[in-house]
């Protein structure tokens, strides 16, 4: 249709002999209907072309002209030419289309179009596209169900709008000043909402060996609710090892973020969070900066080692059990450690299935560098609370710190802590020495008047990336005999205990990577206590991915000094992983710890998002034992389940873990396969069950009421929720399968995906005499908009027929009739379309 009239005239002037093969080629390339229109438009007599050229001079907006006689001769309704006369456009009304802004896909949106096919820049579209709302002077005299319409192109003249009806797509190119920024202050965050939550995690293990058995059970729960941006939580932990049971109430607190001040207020059983002091668990109040409004940082704590067989890892800080998990045989690295504070060491226990235990310490200085102080103020006040069954003093304590940005890459921190018979003051600095090098320094002085001792502690850490291949970090902490942190003064210990404290702790790590030789990492952590006990733990690793395999090796050793590991300190682990296609892989490994050697193989397969399993077999050659194990992890939509079984010559081990969460909200009770965090949402997809959604935390599925929990939304950042359309019934469409939400911390976000149950229908239409409607007749809606054409034997296919929609048929003799459809009584949602007869009556 866009071919120029001059070109058409040239084509028509060719010889008949030359044009016939060309016409046959075109006829084969296009459908009969399209070819008929093309023929009427382009292959017309030259006298008709002269008339077209004359009409084009009269009307410069005429885009195409048709030969009506040719259309009639080919059985095509001439009125169909009116629809194809202009360039393709969207039909009038609201419809769901894809939105692309500056090349970024924003999913499906609900857009409104006028009779000319132009769409409305309403407030809902601007929000979803992350575009600025123009000033009031650009409001158009048009209305939209989603608010005012704006002349966005006039407000931002560089904007380019490309409408693509054939793709159901709106493609926008806008200038940078028309975009909303990604900074938190540039976003409109959601607030409020209320719901109650329960998170649970239950783990059980039973070991049978040499005629004996050992049972271990642990269970953790987190209860709470969100209301008016307040977050209330209570966490408990229960463990039972044989006949020894222990229950610890870790904390209960309330928290709220005040966005204007970029500050968090906490009250209850909390942990002092300070960039200087090791802190303590108190019952009181605390004010600290909201890091999510400044760019968040993780805890920086890394616990790594080698497990000799399937093992339980327990992490304690200040005597309290803060983290426990089961790791498989081989190297492990735990990074998601919920610290009580950033200044106390981590005591790690690794317990294998036989009950044998190994212990090591992760120095606080090794992870303190990851928590670089951010500008702001912290204040805490309250009464020290006891954790566990320890005999502990509980004095009142207050602490305050301030951090200032002195230069672009330099911050300084100072603060003080005061309690009955204890005072401490300190300072610190964080700076970037170069582009990829950071330095952190801390120095704290203490005065324990009850013991009449004074002392100091100093620490420094440096991390650097010397090149694309090489990185390194070092840290050091030293303290004098008289130095005390707050927990040293509250715990009632005998005099010898102070000599077992660390006088110095160091850590260093090096990393080097090469595309040919692989990646090398080594870390060492020497330490010395005041009574002269020296330990030096080294962990090294290497890994490389080849064309058909990935090879890795890890070593762990105590270089010097005494240790609770005894003779089993030295360990080595080598593995080769071979992909087998799809998500299946085979891993072979060999390990040695002390005098124990193991060789084995593991087959693993990820079946889908809800199921994966692992089968293993190994041999201890020097001890003559063969072992096998099987593990399966499943997400049966609303909880997470892990099961494992292992057996050897004279031992068996069973373990299981069940975890997840539940949310009670205004729409009912909804379960989650993952723990629910402090900022979350509830999503609804009509009343459809089993619909899969992609969330920042992982896939979730709707329950029988069509609802699912989005367990975590990034606070003061944009989170994307998307429906996996393949999980929808075939007869169901969505107005918008994608939503982006900017959630304020503590908010409960309710999101709904509007479900459209499309009535696709294949109609066999006849006239009142029972004869099929003529092929090529136009099918129109109640406003005479073209919808489709009648096919062979009166067949009509409509992709979406409204329940009250009026259908007309424009017949070739300039008459019209109204279709009356005999709809089926029942609709199968899994069928792509319905089949129904229809009779076309005179209006």
Explain what this protein looks like in three dimensions.
The protein has 843 residues and is mostly beta strands. Among the domains are: 68-178, Roll (Ubiquitin-like (UB roll)), CATH 3.10.20; 659-757, Outer membrane usher protein FimD, plug domain (Immunoglobulin-like, Sandwich); 761-841, PapC, C-terminal domain (Immunoglobulin-like, Sandwich), CATH 2.60.40. The chain has 11 helices and 54 strands. The strands form 9 sheets. The chain has a 24-stranded antiparallel beta barrel. A 7-stranded mixed sheet has the order 50-49-52-53-54-48-51, with no helix packed on it. Strands 2-1-7-6 form a 4-stranded mixed sheet, with no helix packed on it. Helix 1 (5-12) packs antiparallel against helix 4. The model is unreliable at 1-64 and 563-567 (pLDDT under 50). It comes from Pseudomonas fluorescens. Keywords: Cell outer membrane, Membrane, Signal, Transmembrane, Transmembrane beta strand, Transport. GO terms for molecular function: fimbrial usher porin activity.
Which terms summarize this structure?
843 residues; mainly beta; Ubiquitin-like (UB roll); Immunoglobulin-like; 24-stranded antiparallel barrel; seven-stranded mixed beta sheet; elongated; disordered N terminus
